[in-house]
Specification:
Elements: H1 3-10, H2 36-55, H3 69-82, H4 86-96, H5 119-176, E1 188-190, E2 210-215, H6 223-236, E3 245-247, E4 253-255, E5 273-278, H7 289-306, E6 313-315, H8 316-320, H9 326-330, H10 332-343
Helix pairs in contact: 2-4, 7-10
């Protein structure tokens, strides 16, 4: 396009040329006269440009807090109601352009993952901790119950073992007999004969140097019955006989004549010995376990009291050759065992 046509189109008014008289070298400024239609449209275009520029989102700084889409939408609606804000300018521009204002689409931004800070997480953690605590308590209670059960079982087993040991010990003691009763005095009874010339002459002994063992020669007779027989001699005058001690079938001991007096039992050894006679159940003259225990303990105590050696414990047979006591005369091993038990 030629310059003439350009000036015609622009309707240059040469009278409007402006010269800068202070600076002649400056270019000439000119004013361009616009048509009436352009002058009417120009304010609207300027307003639209301003609104468009206003609606253009500015770059947010990095440290600007993020506002969710829900909060922005609420703020835009509030600003639109007051005629202010970005949406208000867009609505005004749309009205000037003669069209209905539309809803501008908001840029889609990725939602930031929110950290769950509500009480549900805390409550879940508390429930988990409570559950763990309950499980720990149950475990401790179960362990304690198991220990108590184990202790009860141990005590029960120990009680059974002790009971069995006592039973076995009692059976063994009953079978082999005890060498020493717990308390011989409880089994001992003083039932002295009356002084008479046939069973208790009342003569004092000399120094005691030995103990002589006898048997009754009457199977099944008790210590009490044997003592009464000696007492009856004072009336019957059937014989002169007696002993200092009688050991019964159940281990009881009856004292007929005191150890310091003569008893008619061992012939020429009556003045320096103590006579001990035992009861037996049968013709063999063997002693029962109870009788054996009491006889061993009685002879042991007499040896200690009168300073008599167990080797000085003898049989009636050793004094006169009489078959008395029969069982211990016929069984030398049994007699040796009796002396050994007295020594032990």
């Amino acid at each position: 396009m030629s310059d003439n046509n350009r000036f015609e189109d622009e309707q240059v008014n040469y009278s409007d040329l402006i010269f800068d008289w202070g600076n002649p070298s400056a270019p000439v400024k000119k004013t361009v006269r616009k048509t009436a239609q352009q002058q009417k449209e120009e304010p609207a275009e300027k307003e639209i440009k301003k609104e468009v520029k206003r609606e253009m989102p500015e770059a947010e700084p990095e440290d600007t807090l993020y506002v969710s889409g829900y909060d922005k939408d609420s703020r835009n609606k509030a600003e639109a109601g007051t005629g202010k804000g970005r949406n208000a300018g867009a609505a005004a521009a749309a009205r000037l352009m003669g069209r209905k204002a539309g809803v501008q689409e908001k840029p889609v931004r990725p939602q930031k993952k929110k950290v769950r800070t509500d009480s549900s997480a805390d409550s879940g953690a508390e429930k988990k901790m409570t559950r763990s605590g309950e499980l720990l308590k149950r475990s401790k209670k179960r362990a304690l119950r198991n220990r108590l059960i184990a202790a009860a079982c141990f005590v029960a087993v120990l009680a059974v073992v002790i009971f069995l040991i006592l039973q076995i010990t009692g059976a063994v003691k009953k079978r082999i007999g005890r060498s020493v009763p717990e308390d011989l005095s409880e089994l001992m009874e003083e039932d002295y004969l009356t002084v008479n010339s046939y069973s208790r002459p009342g003569i004092s002994t000399h120094k005691l140097t030995g103990i002589v063992v006898h048997y009754t020669a009457e199977p099944g007779v008790t210590a009490k019955e044997r003592r009464d027989y000696y007492e009856s001699l004072a009336e019957s005058h059937a014989a002169r006989a007696s002993v200092n001690y009688i050991v019964g079938l159940e281990g009881e001991v009856v004292i007929c004549v005191p150890p310091g007096e003569v008893a008619y039992a061992s012939n020429d050894r009556n003045l320096d010995t103590i006579s001990v006679e035992y009861c037996h159940a049968d013709e063999s003259g063997a002693v029962s376990e109870e009788t054996y225990r009491s006889m061993v303990e009685l002879i042991k105590q007499l040896c200690e009291k009168y300073s008599i050696s167990p080797d000085d414990v003898i049989r009636h047979y050793d004094v006169t050759g009489k078959l008395c006591p029969k069982y211990y005369v016929e069984d030398q091993a049994a007699w040796d065992k009796l002396i050994s038990d007295i020594k032990s």
